[in-house]
Design a protein that fits this description.
The chain is built from 2 helices and 10 strands. By secondary structure, it is mostly beta strands.
Length: 150
């Protein structure tokens, strides 16, 4: 059998007409493979326009006290990677730090596990732990605040 251009065109038509992705033929030392690569078409996401909700008129003084109640929490210590937060070196060990504890720059404050690798997270500054924002074993994102240090 000879694979001439007419024969190849017929194979291509069979491939297209039957929604095939590939045809392979061998005849002695000759071989041919035709592939029809399917290009995925994704529909654009439909986004509904936001609808304005009517709001009751509020006195201007209501927002002023809320701004005054803003509490300074200290400097945020953020996760340098995506992973799982651990407050202690092992499940039965004491946590690295507790709220109210004073730490120095470079002290290990927690572990973030990423790809089965335990990464010790060191404090970037000295101070007192004001708040720990993540629960033990909770997934964390890159840049997520782990704790505040005052």
């Amino acid at each position: 059998m000879k694979f001439d251009i007419e024969y190849i065109e017929k194979l291509a038509k069979v491939l297209a007409d039957n929604s095939l992705t590939e045809i392979s033929l061998e005849d002695g030392e000759q071989a041919i493979t035709l592939r029809n690569e399917v290009v995925g078409v994704t529909a654009a996401p439909v986004v509904a326009a936001p609808v304005a909700q009517p709001q009751a008129a509020q006195p201007a003084q209501a927002s002023a006290p809320a701004e005054q109640k803003e509490v300074k929490k200290g400097k945020p210590l953020t996760s340098p990677m995506v992973g799982t937060f651990y407050s202690a070196p092992s499940p039965d060990a004491d946590p690295f730090v507790k709220v109210g504890q004073t730490i120095k720059e470079g002290d290990v404050v927690c572990i973030v596990e990423a790809m089965k690798l335990m990464n010790e997270i060191e404090s970037e500054f000295s101070g007192k732990i004001v708040e720990i924002c993540v629960q033990d074993g909770q997934p964390v994102e890159f840049g997520q605040v782990l704790m505040y240090i005052e």
